[in-house]
Amino acid sequence: MTQIQTGLLILLLTFLGVVGYNVYLHETTPNEISYTDFVDQVQNDKIKAIHLKGGSVKGEDISKREFCSFIPDVPSILPLLNEKSILITAEKDSENFGGTLKSMLPIFLILGGYLIFSRMQKGDKPGFGKGKSSSFHPIKSTNLTFDDVAGISEARVELIEIVESLKHPDKFSSLGGYIPKGVLLQGPPGTGKTLLAKAIAGEASVPFYSIGGSDFVEMFVGVGASRVRELFTEAKKNSPCIIFIDEIDAIGGKRSGGNASGSSDEREQTLNALLVEMDGFDSNQTVIIIAATNRPDILDPALLRPGRFDRQVTISLPDVKGRRKILEVHAKKIVMARGINLSDVARGIPGFSGAEIANLVNEAALMAVRKNKNAVELSDFEEAKDKISLGLERKNLVIKEKDRRVTAYHEAGHAITAKLLPETDPVTKISIIPRGGALGLTQQVPLDDKYTYSREYLENRIKILMGGRIAEEIVFHHQTTGASNDIVRATEIASRIVCEFGMSTAIGPIAYMHEQDGFLGASTATKPYSEKTAQLIDAEIKKLIDQCYTETMELLTTNNKFLHKLAEALLVNETVDGEEMEIVHHCYINELEIEKNLKNKLKEG
Ligand code: ADP
Ligand code: ZN
Prior knowledge:
Layout: H1 3-28, E1 31-32, H2 35-43, E2 47-53, E3 56-61, E4 66-70, H3 74-83, E5 87-91, H4 97-122, H5 153-167, H6 169-174, E6 182-186, H7 193-204, E7 208-212, H8 213-216, H9 223-237, E8 241-246, H10 249-252, H11 262-279, E9 287-293, E10 311-314, H12 320-331, H13 342-347, H14 354-370, H15 378-394, H16 401-420, E11 427-431, E12 441-444, H17 455-476, H18 484-500, H19 531-558, H20 560-573, E13 575-577, H21 578-604
Parallel strand pairs: 1-4, 2-5, 6-9, 6-10, 7-8, 8-9
Antiparallel strand pairs: 2-3, 3-4, 11-12, 11-13
Helix pairs in contact: 1-4, 5-7, 9-11, 12-14, 14-15, 16-17, 16-20, 17-18, 17-19, 18-19, 19-20, 20-21
Bound molecules: adenosine-5'-diphosphate (ADP) and zinc ion (ZN).
């Protein structure tokens, strides 16, 4: 073929690419609605879930119509979204990187076209899946170890077993051990999932194959599935090894059934190929597939079945200790001035992910270089932080100090109520690190599996749920919407006590189907009831709630010094575990003792 012919062909390909691409863009852009419309729909419960990227929002309304819109001020609408219990997923706004990529797609198309074309000239058949030489080359060994990933102590224990099975597959299976096949790392972007997968490969010194979920779904139809097969063939030849699939949600999102667009067909084929490959291992082939996602909620359940990604490891944003450890890892790479306290730096960057911390250290070093310093000083960290935070503020990642305080008292309120009341499950963890839609969490783990609940246990659950809002009221004298889910759950328990468990004396042991209670389900024995009974039921529920409220208010007011102490500990450390909470409780009890003794002495004297 002459050069002119080649040139003409490329031109033609470009033209087709651009035209085709614009048609594609046109088809997939959802209906854009105004912000006012968006708020309207939220208020009228027309929307159940949204995806946020910076101020851009998209999703589907209840009649499955896709929409997109722009929110001028995201923080201001969050309370409403919470109140309506809308499932929010969010991703970092990467300076509209997606948009840039999209606009560059035609260029990629040309390049792709050219590549195929030049392959053809060399005598290869087109299509990546068919060439003789594989397009997958593992990174031989990654050299990274668990020491390069800081603040993951919880995940580490689970992952060591995987390293062991890669290192000694024979020993592992001869002992009857079941070699894990798939591990799903889930967590926000930048929390070190990729790093961790590489560290596993490094620890086990095995080859590491890495591919992005979106790499599978290419513009050439039918390539995704064959790429999967090719990847697995290649990996099996080099077993034991690791296959890492980043952003698995790009191919592993729930299969949509009705949606007949070409790209989703392509995705489904790719996903099916992946499932077939994962199911078809011999026991002597140790290939561990590690996948990462920040959207576990949208994954196809088929991926999570036994024998597939049945190990799930959650990696959350680091707390203050974790941030200090990550800072230490990255600070090793730069020259630091003496006397910098990394704990202080860590405290000043709540909400930062590992990637943002790495970026912070890097920026601080750049600041120092710009000023011709020979070591990085605290002021450089401060400046770098301000620079990054300004960017983050826009992205709504930095939690406002006031919100942190309210959350700390709210969670401390739950935890203290649980701690001080008898017949409750022990508190194992309290945290004010936001995750999902929630600003904080208080975790209680029952000592044993409970099958029956006493009335006291149930009432105390109501009180624990109310403890959050009551603590806010005691300290800030106002109510926030942050507690709305607690209130819903408390009301639910109260109405079950009255209607389902027959524990109210005024009504007696009769199970009634309360009108609002969908949750009772049709299987429960129900009894039709009169208007009068309905009023009685409502009155009983209200009485129960009011009584729980008053008693919890009393409990927390009497113990408000404990409340302040625990909230303070949360504000400093961001997470407090069960043991640490015991220590705070101990300090509080000691102080009470001392006060009492003092008073007695004063009386005597
Ligand atoms: P993810 O895959 O979760 O999006 P990455 O593994 O790509 O995150 O993290 C990006 C970078 O951020 C890493 O290369 C590393 O420099 C830094 N980083 C993230 N988490 C950690 C951590 N826990 N310890 C040390 N560095 C981290
Ligand atoms: Zn709460």
